[in-house]
TrEMBL record:
Gene Ontology MF annotations: transferase activity
Major localization listed first in the record, in broad terms: membrane
Annotated transmembrane regions: 12-33, 62-82, 94-112, 149-167, 179-199
PANTHER family reported in the protein's UniProt record: LIPOTEICHOIC ACID SYNTHASE (PTHR47371), PHOSPHOGLYCEROL TRANSFERASE I (PTHR47371:SF3)
EC number annotated for this UniProt entry: 2.7.8.-
Protein name: LTA synthase family protein
Pfam families attached to this UniProt entry: Sulfatase (PF00884)
Keywords: Cell membrane, Membrane, Transferase, Transmembrane, Transmembrane helix
Superkingdom: Bacteria
UniProt subcellular location: Cell membrane
Sulfatase N-terminal domain boundaries: 302-589
UniProt xrefs under CDD domains: LTA_synthase
Organism: Paradesertivirga mongoliensis
Length: 695
């Protein structure tokens, strides 16, 4: 037994050295994040916080590494009871291969995490599983064109060969002989087991190290440094599994926000009303409003085209000039018509924002088992009830993320995509993601121009402004000269940045040409066009905690023909988001129609009631108003406007305005979620009832 215990001590020492190599690699990636993304002017003021972030990061790393090396540890532990030298030989060979493979896989995830930030400005999140549901070949094409795959592969191989050499050196050294009595050896084995168990938990308390422990500073970026890519991936996978039980898990999340029922959320949201004894059913009824009766709209129903633009960055619009023309033909329309700039998207991915706009859902449903559920909150329903033909038109594949099935259940009459457009439109060109935007808009224009027996509503989704940023060969871009001051801030090489901005320009220019055609035809007198973006483009610039409005910003544009314009002047300085888009459209276009709304009608915005207008980005749990900003998922992230002109935030502990925004944001989110979950539950009961009736 002494021989086996002695062998265990030596093997544990070798395992510790492997741990040190792994830890060095994890720390190297953390340093890479710091050097590549850190704002050293700010970070130099917080050396203590940075040190704490690296120490806490080592704890997260140690936890992951201990899990990765658990099998070798158990093999070495079992060797105490096996004297066979053959066991030693085979186990050593296995562990060499095993630790090499684990390192290789870990490096893949760490590299993905490093470059995942370039697109989503976060560690690996649950969104990554959605990428697998996209067209895999197209996604890989984008990865190949946008990221330095060859250099990454070389670095990956270099680290693996370095580890191989390191292992060879470790195993070449002779065993140490531990000359202590047997009782002390046994006690030492138990202590080492305890140390390893502590390494897995990283805590002596009730709970092991958790994601909440990553918060070590008031600085958002420093907290970001604590987590490694593998821990982030593990967390994301857990979220993915939890999403399979949407109702139960989301109800728990709502409870954590302080809401046990829809009625409790309604009391917070409709604070001006007397709701002391409101029921859940009444709370849901209050989510429906009605447009005023309008005899002009009854007689002259306008066509409505809602355009959902891919990666329509509000921030990038700020750089538009003759030297860096990012708007193209859209520029003049932005000057002529209604444009909201204090505006954010509901989600940070296309599918999040799309489903929120279509059915007011704060969670993604189209790829879940609930994609066949019909939601009364669908934006198509008020148009259907008003006698409209409803159309969902995407430039991409119509079955992307199961949207063909989902949209069909939401009362859209016609659902058309890439293949339909190519079949019906002569000489229609496309890239990997879908038909180019110019052809998509030509198709919509043709459908609008066709003889009509009823007014038409179009929900139009563009795709061209998407990595790998392929454009028609016939397109001649306007000038894009990036100023030196901007070049210093780029997250990517200038060549890729220009390619990105050319695609942004092309999409905007295509929309501008479409608007020209509308305005210069008879359609210009009876067609309302509304446009917003699905999310900001996060590839070019990094955004710190104080520039969250820029990080989440998309524009809202409206072309309103003269006879449909509201009489009162519009206040376009109010803060708003996707929740406010369709309540505004319905009141512009429809007479006496009931609609679902957790947002505001922007046509009524005035200085007097500015406090009730606010913007919500559900993807980051962040809200903005004219007075404050908050992260409504916590009680620690409160902001004021350090500079209202440039929209730069200032971190504060608390304020009455921030408290008010926190309450309204949480209640708004809770009401949306409660309603969607209620519809899911009702659909499940109805489905169960139908199945029982068939027996």
């Amino acid at each position: 037994m002494d021989y086996q215990i002695n062998r265990f001590f030596n093997n544990f020492y070798r395992l510790f050295k492997i741990y040190v190599f792994y830890l060095a690699v994890f720390t190297l990636f953390r340093l890479w994040f710091l050097v590549r993304l850190g704002d050293f002017k700010e970070l130099i003021k917080l050396p203590g916080d940075i040190s704490l972030a690296f120490l806490r990061g080592m704890q997260f790393d140690t936890m992951i590494i201990c899990y990765l090396l658990l099998i070798p540890f158990l093999i070495y532990l079992a060797g105490i009871f096996i004297s066979s030298k053959e066991y030693t030989r085979k186990s050593t060979s296995f562990i060499i291969w095993y630790t090499g493979i684990m390192l290789a896989l870990s490096l893949v995830i760490l590299f993905i995490d490093q470059y995942y930030y370039n697109y989503f400005q976060t560690h690996i999140s649950v969104i990554i599983f959605g990428l697998a549901d996209d067209d895999s070949q197209t996604v890989m094409s984008s990865v190949w064109t946008d990221y330095p795959i060859i250099r990454i592969a070389m670095a990956w191989l270099g680290l693996i060969f370095a580890f191989k050499y390191y292992l060879k050196r470790i195993n070449a050294r002779p065993d140490l002989n531990f000359n202590v009595n047997s009782n002390l050896k046994v006690a030492s084995v138990i202590i080492l087991m305890g140390i390893y168990f502590l390494g897995i938990r990283e805590s002596l308390g009730t709970y092991p190290l958790r994601i909440e422990d990553s918060h070590v500073s008031d600085n958002k970026f420093i907290n970001f440094l604590t987590i490694n890519g593998i821990y982030a991936f593990k967390n994301s996978y857990r979220e993915r599994k939890q999403s399979e039980n949407i109702v139960e898990n989301e109800l728990k999340n709502l409870k954590a926000l302080g809401y046990e029922s829809p009625a409790s959320a309604a009391r917070d949201y409709f604070v001006a009303d007397s709701l002391a004894h409101i029921s859940d059913e009444t709370a849901f009824e209050k989510l429906f409003d009605k447009t005023p009766y309008n005899p002009q709209l009854e007689k002259n129903k306008p066509n409505v085209v809602f355009v959902f633009m891919e990666s329509m960055s509000n921030h990038n619009m700020d750089f538009d000039s003759e030297q860096m023309n990012v708007l193209g033909n859209l520029r003049k329309h932005f000057k002529e018509d209604v444009l909201y700039r204090n505006f954010v998207s509901s989600g940070n991915t296309t599918i999040q924002s799309l489903e929120y706009l279509m059915v007011n859902s704060p969670i993604s449903l189209s790829q879940s088992k609930y994609r066949f559920t019909q939601f009364p909150s669908s934006v198509a329903i008020p148009f259907k009830n008003a006698g409209y033909q409803t159309n969902f038109i995407t430039g991409g594949k119509v079955n992307w993320r199961e949207m063909d099935k989902f949209a069909a259940k939401q009362r859209f009459d016609r659902i058309k995509g890439m293949k339909h457009i190519q079949a019906e439109l002569a000489k229609c060109e496309a890239n990997k993601w879908g038909v180019y935007d110019e052809y998509l808009f030509n198709y919509v224009y043709e459908q609008l121009s066709a003889e009509k027996e009823q007014p038409k509503f179009f929900f139009v989704q563009t795709t061209t402004n998407h990595t790998p940023f392929e454009l028609p060969l016939s397109y001649k871009p306007y000038k894009i000269n990036i100023a030196d001051s901007l070049k210093e801030k780029l997250l990517v090489k200038e060549e890729l940045a220009v390619k990105n901005l050319n695609a942004y320009q092309y999409a905007n220019n295509s929309l501008g040409i479409f608007l020209d055609k509308i305005k210069n035809s008879d359609l210009g007198r009876n067609t309302i066009v509304v446009m917003t973006g699905d999310h900001n483009n996060l590839m070019l610039f990094d955004f710190d905690e104080l520039h969250q409005l820029q990080q989440r910003g998309v524009p809202l544009y409206m072309y309103i023909p003269e006879k449909y314009k509201p009489q009162a002047a519009l206040d376009t300085s109010v803060f708003a988001s996707h929740k406010d888009v369709f309540p505004t459209i319905f009141n512009l276009a429809l007479s006496n129609q009931t609609y679902f709304s957790v947002g505001n009608n922007l046509l009524k915005a005035t200085d007097a009631d500015k406090a009730k207008y606010f913007a919500m980005n559900i993807g980051s749990s962040t809200s903005f108003s004219d007075y404050a900003a908050v992260n409504y998922s916590t009680l620690s992230a409160f902001y004021n406007w350090q500079n209202k002109n440039t929209k730069v935030l200032g971190k504060v502990r608390r304020s009455a305005e921030a408290d008010e925004l926190l309450r309204r944001s949480r209640a708004n989110y809770a009401l949306s979620m409660f309603y969607i979950l209620d519809q899911i539950s009702k659909d499940k009961k109805q489905t169960k009832g139908r199945k029982l009736a068939q027996l």
